[in-house]
């Protein structure tokens, strides 16, 4: 399936020009959160949102000084008022930081979008908060943030009639995930075992797990009448950014120069996810369109793993914050 991932990148780079984000919806009263927004895809996504006239953008960053510098750059390019962007601290590798951020966000008058852009790609095995660090950042704490914000998202929809979009950056590399790691009595135990972990494929696997959880959440939410939300997983494709800095080599750098999109173009796919209608709920998006993901997502094996993994994820999240998943 790795060949399918590479084919997706090549096709998108050679034959697709992503549309510049636009909308007929008045965004002047909306509040949107963007994590990892001081650099790369997050920075360019925030710039697009500012240009589109979002009333308030919350730049969720690990280092406040870097966030302030990015805010200044964005506002200089868009000409929007200083009051339209706020800088809030969050460390996606810290459960306590995620909890504090969500508690602060619960006081917002409304919440119309969350772009969960902060992510990690590494081939080095490190445990963090009991999880391999890639899993902790890309999966566990990302969905901790989702569930902690879910009551706020649902309240907002009930008050405004606008369903909050929770957008998690995905990748065509989910097609190349090492599936053998999922064939275990307890998936997280296998993934958090330094002796068994296949770290060369950990980033692709994390994106597969994100897709599983995204689809399962959307499916289970259909049974609820607590207030609508939309969750989707857009793939910006390979973009020039610092995400793959550990992989840098002459060959990698040459391939990136030839095949990778600019971060600005890639960010169009992410902003599109924030603007997409409810047909995107639970979906994988590529080139700003809903696309069928890998067979190991949609076939019976994938469905079984999806449900098993999600139950494990719920167990982890409940251990971190008891009752947090009950709002689904």
TrEMBL record:
Q: Which Gene3D superfamilies match?
A: NAD(P)-binding Rossmann-like Domain
InterPro entries xref list: NAD(P)-bd_dom_sf (IPR036291), SDR_fam (IPR002347)
- The positions making up the signal sequence are none
The answer to whether the entry has keyword Plastid is no
Tell me the SUPFAM superfamilies matching this sequence.
NAD(P)-binding Rossmann-fold domains
- Entry keywords, A to Z: Oxidoreductase
Q: Does the keyword Transferase apply?
A: no
Q: What is an example of a GO molecular function annotated in this UniProt entry?
A: oxidoreductase activity
Cite the Pfam families for this sequence.
adh_short
Protein name per Swiss-Prot or TrEMBL: Short-chain dehydrogenase
């Amino acid at each position: 399936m790795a060949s399918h991932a590479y084919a997706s990148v090549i096709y998108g780079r050679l034959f697709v020009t992503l549309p510049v984000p636009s909308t007929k919806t008045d965004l002047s009263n909306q509040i949107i959160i963007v994590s990892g927004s001081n650099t790369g895809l997050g920075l360019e996504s925030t710039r697009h949102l500012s240009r589109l006239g979002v009333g308030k953008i919350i730049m969720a960053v690990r280092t406040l000084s870097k966030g302030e510098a990015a805010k200044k750059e964005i506002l200089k390019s868009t000409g929007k008022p200083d009051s339209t962007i706020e800088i809030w601290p969050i460390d996606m590798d810290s459960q306590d930081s995620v909890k504090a951020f969500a508690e602060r966000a619960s006081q917002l008058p409304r919440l119309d979008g969350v772009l969960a852009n902060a992510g990690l790609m590494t081939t080095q095995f490190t445990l963090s908060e009991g999880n391999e660090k890639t899993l902790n950042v890309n999966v566990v704490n990302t969905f901790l943030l989702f569930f902690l914000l879910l009551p706020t998202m649902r309240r907002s929809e009930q008050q405004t009639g606008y369903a909050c979009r929770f957008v998690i950056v995905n990748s065509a590399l989910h097609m190349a995930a090492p599936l053998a790691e999922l064939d275990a009595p307890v998936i997280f135990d296998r993934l958090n075992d330094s002796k068994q972990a296949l770290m060369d494929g950990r980033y692709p696997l994390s994106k597969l797990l994100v897709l599983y959880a995204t689809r399962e959440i959307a499916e289970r939410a259909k049974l609820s009448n607590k207030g609508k939300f939309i969750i989707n997983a857009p793939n910006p494709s390979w973009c020039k950014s610092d995400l793959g800095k550990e992989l840098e080599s002459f060959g990698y750098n040459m391939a990136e120069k030839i095949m990778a999109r600019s971060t600005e173009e890639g960010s169009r796919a992410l902003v599109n996810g924030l603007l997409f209608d409810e047909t995107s709920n639970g979906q994988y998006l590529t080139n700003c369109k809903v696309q069928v993901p890998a067979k190991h997502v949609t076939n019976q094996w994938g469905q079984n793993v999806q449900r098993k993994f999600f139950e494990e994820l719920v167990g982890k999240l409940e251990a971190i914050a008891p009752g947090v998943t009950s709002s689904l």
